[in-house]
Design goal:
globular; Nucleotidyltransferase, domain 5; Palm domain of DNA polymerase
Length: about 750
């Protein structure tokens, strides 16, 4: 290849030997692979004898050049300190070797040494993934690269992408590793399918499609955990080339993911199978894809300088950490390898004051009409920016004498002499999200959806930045900074409540950064004026979430008189439903239960208030003889499930007491029958013989020959079955009840 120049986008990049490989997509749609020699520097600090010993060892084995003197800023003090720069000769071997070498030199501190090399390259060169660039290359080598773009642009073009979808054509949850299922491939407006039993035909078919269409993005379901390792393994065994990567690589096939503990749950993450020179995104292994789609992933990849495939498999917290590291490098701040700032000692009384979290006012139970909800916009990130809260600015040495701003309640002092790393990182994100939301309101159709997905991606970055501020293993975390943010949050919510009450509003509920208020004759203009007034006093902008036609604050399941802060549902004036804390929102509830509850809420949503809600009761077709129950007993296809409102609501607005029951999607069947699966085809019932036959031990018969037939319910625990039976009016163990003409009893 001779000299080539033009415009395009940075599509993919990764280290190889002592270079960074860049894949560009040209404006005409072509692909270009260029190599850029790269020699990063790490930094070391410690006793001179140990630093010299480390230098001698690294140069002897050819991993680095001789160290050289350099000066960089210390994060905590802000002062420049002397360090030794380590010019790296072998990008692949050095990180692994350093871990062993430091056991012999425990007093040496390393900086900037554990940053992924492609990210470090982007930080230092000032580029970012999906940047629009002008390039010049020759013989596969990059000669020059000029950015025509900024990650802070609101309107940017993205490269033309050819997409292929690969997914299993059958259930694979219980397939053993290495067994390839039937596969369905969609590309170029057509769909192909191969059976898993014919491996050679399948591999040749997939390889042929990739060769013909040359997709930029392969979008899969179960790709990381099953499809790609199975395809790679089978292709190697058969000796058939399968060029999923555009780069020639040797792959080690791994089936093991990792399990980890998070917020009281054990979670599993599948192994990662990114491609080289091509993108692979597994929809089932990417939270960000599910939450924001491709538009959100592109937005985050551009801002965080993390390659798109890596960003798809990481959390938003990884993204905000990358942005903080980028900011630190631009400011000449050293990034420590291991976090070295422990939590300071606190007495029990100090912990009671400092470790309170957000402020919550318990709601007024019952049904309420004409309620406005107002929210602080990105409250905690905005507090960090406004009050300069960052790990290094809390009780800093330069302002410890009392010159800085004091945090309410806890008494920490915030630095006023230098801007913190965290506020510097967050401020432009807040501004960009604000501008996206403005554009979203003005835009129409798909354009508005694009802006929405981008602002949602930024929202996740902002949400996680607060949690990472107090996370013990976060690179730029410190618990005192976290406590300072929540202290300011409590203060501002109190101020908002007092301002609202002074303006004649009744505060029904307040939760961390939101207030629900009510006032006779309240209009939208009154709420907007209230938002402006609170914003002026607190320094944090507020927005009007909406005005509810009606909203119900629910009680505890164990105590009808006790409210629950985060359990409510209501309908805005626009007809939009908002619900929190009920079965519809929970991840451990069967799907048909959630559908049933949503269907009930949709029926209730047309009501304007308490009296109309009572009239909607008959529309729900509830009870054991209701429409959906009859369909389930007959094997029909209802769309709901089984659920109930957690408790009768107090008569604050006229909602009648009583339980709402309905039975939906027929994943319920009786022994001895056959049920139709969602995919079609019949499923023999467990434990029964032919139709009408009674399986051994199925229970007693009633007088007149009627048979008690136990329900089989998939996806519900034993306790859930008992709750279901009670909701349907089926008694506990004992004499059966008649349900739709069929005698039914509950059995353990």
């Amino acid at each position: 290849m001779g000299r080539k120049r033009g415009r395009g986008w940075i599509f993919d990049l990764y280290p190889s030997a002592n270079t960074i490989v860049l894949w560009l997509i040209e404006e005409g749609g072509g692909h270009l692979r260029l190599e850029d020699p790269y020699q990063p520097c790490f930094y070391a600090r410690g006793p001179q004898q140990e630093v010299t010993g480390l230098e001698r060892e690294l140069t002897r084995v050819g991993l680095s050049l001789p160290f050289r003197e350099a000066y960089r800023k210390d994060l905590w003090s802000g002062r420049e300190i002397r360090v030794e720069a380590i010019p790296v000769l072998d990008l692949e071997r050095l990180p692994r070797y350093l871990q062993r070498a430091l056991r012999r030199y425990p007093e040496v501190e390393l900086y900037n040494c554990d940053i992924p090399l492609e990210q470090l390259y982007l930080y230092e060169r000032g580029f970012f993934p999906l940047a629009h660039v002008y390039f010049e290359g020759e013989e596969g080598k990059l000669l020059s690269l000029l950015s025509l773009d900024s990650p802070w642009n609101l309107d940017y073009t993205r490269p033309p992408l050819r997409q292929m979808e690969v997914e299993p054509a059958e259930e694979i949850r219980h397939l053993p590793p290495g067994r390839l299922p039937s596969i369905q491939v969609k590309v170029g407006g057509e769909c192909w399918m191969w059976k898993g039993g014919d491996g050679e035909k399948l591999i040749k078919g997939v390889a042929g499609l990739i060769s013909h269409y040359d997709p930029d993005l392969i979008l899969s379901s179960w790709g990381d955990s099953h499809l790609l390792p199975s395809l790679f393994s089978l292709a190697q065994r058969l000796g058939i080339p399968l060029k999923l990567d555009r780069e020639r690589v040797r792959r080690a096939i791994t089936w093991e993911g990792r399990s980890y503990f998070s917020y009281g749950r054990i979670l599993y993450q599948a192994p990662s199978y990114p491609l080289f020179g091509r993108w692979h995104i597994d929809r089932r292994n990417s939270f960000l894809w599910e939450a924001t789609g491709l538009e959100g992933l592109i937005e985050l990849s551009r801002l965080t300088k993390i390659s798109l495939q890596r960003m798809a498999r990481r959390s938003p917290g990884t993204g905000i950490t990358s942005m903080q590291m980028d900011r630190a490098l631009q400011d000449g701040i050293l990034i420590p390898w291991n976090k070295g700032e422990p939590e300071r000692f606190k007495s029990a009384s100090q912990l009671l004051v400092a470790d309170k979290g957000g402020l919550v006012y318990q709601p007024v139970l019952g049904l309420h009409q004409g309620v406005g909800e107002i929210d602080f916009s990105s409250m905690y990130p905005a507090i960090m920016v406004r009050h300069n809260i960052s790990p290094e600015t809390v009780d800093c040495a330069c302002c410890r004498g009392g010159q800085g701003e004091r945090v309410p309640e806890v008494g920490y002092v915030l630095c006023q002499r230098r801007r913190g790393l965290v506020p510097k990182t967050l401020e432009p994100i807040l501004e960009k999200r604000r501008r996206y939301k403005e554009r979203m309101k003005e835009a129409q159709g798909e354009e508005g959806g694009v802006y929405d997905r981008r602002q949602v991606a930024l929202k996740w970055i902002l949400v996680t930045c607060f949690g990472y501020l107090g996370y013990r293993n976060a690179r730029f975390g410190r618990i005192e900074a976290h406590e300072a943010v929540t202290a300011f949050g409590r203060e501002k919510l109190l101020q908002a409540k007092e301002i609202a009450e002074a303006a004649g509003f009744r505060v029904l509920h307040a939760l961390v950064d939101s207030l629900w208020v009510q006032k006779e004759g309240m209009r939208e203009a009154d709420l907007l004026q209230l938002c402006r007034r609170i914003g002026e006093v607190t320094g944090i902008p507020l927005s009007l979430e909406g005005i509810y036609r009606w909203i119900a604050f629910l009680s505890s399941r164990r105590d009808n008189s006790r409210p629950v802060a985060n359990r409510y549902f209501g309908v805005f004036a626009s007809g939009e439903i908002k619900a929190r804390g009920i079965e519809l929102r929970r991840g451990d509830i069967p799907l048909f239960v959630q559908r049933a509850q949503l269907e009930m809420l949709q029926v209730m949503a047309s009501a304007k208030g308490g009296s109309e809600l009572e009239e909607r009761k008959d529309s729900l077709d509830i009870g054991p003889r209701g429409r959906i129950c009859r369909e389930a007993q007959a094997g029909g296809g209802g769309s709901g499930g089984i659920t109930d409102l957690p408790h009768p609501l107090p008569q604050a607005g006229g909602l009648p007491p009583g339980q709402l029951d309905c039975l939906g999607e027929p994943r319920i069947r009786t022994a001895g029958d056959e049920a139709t699966s969602r995919r079609g085809g019949s499923i023999p019932a467990r434990g029964g013989g032919g139709k009408g036959e009674r399986a051994e031990g199925e229970g007693p018969s009633l007088e007149g020959g009627s048979e008690v037939r136990p329900f089989q319910i998939s996806g519900i625990s034993g306790q859930g079955c008992r709750n279901l039976a009670l909701a349907l009016g089926i008694p506990g163990p004992g004499p059966p009840a008649v349900l739709g003409g069929v005698p039914v009893a509950l059995r353990d």
